[in-house]
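Study both lines:
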Amino acid sequence: MEVLDAILLGIIQGLTEFLPVSSSGHLELGKAILGDNSMPQDSLLFTVVLHFATALSTIVVFRKDVREIFHGLFQFKWNKETRFSVQIIISMLPAALIGLFYEEQLESFFGGNIRFVGFMLLITALLLYFADQAKDTDKSVTNGKALIIGISQAMAMLPGISRSGATISTSVILGVDKTRAARFSFLMVVPLIMGKMAKDILGGELNFQGEQILALGAGFMAAFFAGLLACTWMIQLVKKSKLSYFAIYCIIVGFIAIGYSFWG
């Protein structure tokens, strides 16, 4: 992969990780358009590195929340920080189980199957539409809701289903306050990405070749800085109930992807 291509894909990842349009789906489309013929495992490696970059940007944007969570945990008391941490753990379980037991099957979807991506984008559009119709509330995330949101996150492991779109939409449909829904959505993915990176490093699965390091590094930096901008922007958009615009976008890109898969 060329460095310029990696930077472009990094920017796409950084922007679309937080905007509800599926970062993994756009990465697969971008790699197909740029002619990247990586094996599914190599393609997934690049995707994981870019997701790690946006996880770091999430920590930077929500550094105050992260600091408060750790401070609350080390008090060893049952407080709101401890309760929030438990809800994060509950939300992680569905995706963690799928990643643990169905990793090979999951990797097979990251090989440039843009027709599949197109159909998944249409599902994302449907979720965003229903979320945009939901009424504003001031409710918080509960343990039960955290599990349901976690199931949505597990579904979003497929390229084309937006993780932020699925989790925020599910939260809002369940009656969670939109600002709290965005905060929970962005923070709940950080432990999963860190865990995935640790698993791959300890398992010796992240074998960087000399020619890959420069491209991966460039893509990482591009995704990190683009993620900083997009995360802050998305929080404001969710507050203003602008999800229907992204639903329209996903419909357009979804049909383009499906058409490209037949005639491209």
